[in-house]
Design a protein that fits this description.
Belongs to the LysR transcriptional regulatory family. The protein is α/β, with parallel strands linked by helices. It has three domains: 75 residues, Arc Repressor Mutant, subunit A, CATH 1.10.10.10; 104 residues, D-Maltodextrin-Binding Protein, domain 2 (3-Layer(aba) Sandwich), CATH 3.40.190.10; 98 residues, Periplasmic binding protein-like II (D-Maltodextrin-Binding Protein, domain 2, 3-Layer(aba) Sandwich), CATH 3.40.190.10. 43% of the residues lie in helices and 20% in strands. It has eleven helices and 13 strands. The chain has a five-stranded mixed beta sheet, sandwiched between helices. Strands 8-12-7-11 form a four-stranded mixed beta sheet, covered by helices on one side. A hairpin with an 8-residue loop joins strand 1 and strand 2. The longest helix is centred in the first third of the chain and has 25 residues.
Length: 303
């Protein structure tokens, strides 16, 4: 039993299809079938039910029972690799949403790169919030940062930021006021970002009023570049606003609506049963993160 066989089995579990598994792993279908057969021979059990004429694969009872074993096997293999590679250095894999990486954590990453004593190797991943939960649950990452608090049995979520929302406009805007009601704005010029579910609800009721936004983006880079166009505007949390105006002049106003947009909450998520090999790296990063966020006026709520 080897890593490639286990990873192939777990991909089959995910896709329920040999063809899709082969495509996702950049393998041929015969290679996928060979790996699965080899794994079944070693275990002396059938993991999938092979039915002619059915494209979607069904797991046997033993196949279902083998899933958590395979996931633990991969996790142990990863810890072994870290143990082999690590001496004094720490290794940490984290995952965040795009704007978290680009706006909130960017300067922290840069500060860590500039340190004379390089004690940590960082692997930084960018995913949607729901994907980060899945990665953490499978021990593919050690630490995650998300905007949505989802219920997962083995994941603990802790708020670290509660950010006020602001109106940010291209510098050449004609509407320059310290406080602006969204009714004063041209909805055709909005660059919409769905920061999280509660914000989406507020926006639907008080800004778009049921109309679909003309343009919606989900990355910091797109938001940043589109805001360069004359008269364009967006609503964004203070960390994103600060990051944008550190790169280009923009006009920032408070939102004058009686019902204010909900604060954007950033959660730090960790596994209840973390990889032992990453515990020290997680602690070091958390300490650095706390000091970093305390020095910014973004609504830090950490301990």
């Amino acid at each position: 039993m080897n890593l490639s066989e286990i990873e192939t089995f777990l991909m089959i579990v995910k896709t329920k299809n040999i063809t899709k598994t082969a495509e996702n792993l950049f393998l041929s279908q015969p290679t996928v079938s060979h790996r699965l057969k080899s794994l079944e021979n070693e275990l002396e059990v059938k993991l999938i039910a092979r039915k002619k004429g059915y494209k979607q694969i069904e797991l046997t009872t033993q196949g279902e029972e083998f899933i958590p074993i395979a996931e633990r096997w991969v996790s142990i293999w990863q810890e072994m690799q870290r143990l082999k590679d690590s001496q004094e250095k720490l290794y940490l894999t984290i995952a965040c949403t795009d704007t978290l990486n680009s706006a909130i954590l960017f300067d922290l990453y840069r500060d860590m790169l500039d340190e004379e004593e390089q004690i940590m190797n960082l692997h930084i991943k960018t995913h949607y919030s729901y994907e980060v939960y899945g990665l953490l649950e499978r021990h593919d990452i050690d630490l995650g940062f998300v905007y949505h608090h989802l219920q997962f049995k083995n994941i603990v979520a802790e708020p670290v930021l509660k950010e006020k929302m602001y109106l940010v406009q291209a510098e050449e805007t004609e509407l320059k006021k310290p406080v602006i009601h969204t009714d004063e704005l041209d909805l055709e010029r909005e660059i919409f970002v769905s920061w999280e579910a509660n914000y989406q609800i507020w926006h639907d009721e008080w800004v778009s009023k049921g109309e679909r936004p003309r343009i919606q983006v989900d990355t910091f880079e797109l938001l940043f570049h589109l805001l360069a166009k004359e008269q364009m505007w967006a609503i964004a949390p203070i960390s994103v606003v600060d990051r944008i105006r550190s790169l280009r002049p923009v006009y920032v106003s408070e939102i004058g609506n009686q019902i204010q947009p909900p604060e954007r909450v950033t959660y730090k998520i960790k596994h209840k049963y973390p990889n032992e090999a990453a515990l020290k790296a997680v602690q070091v990063f958390e300490d650095r993160l706390d000091r970093y966020l305390q020095g910014r006026d973004w609504g830090y709520v950490g301990q």
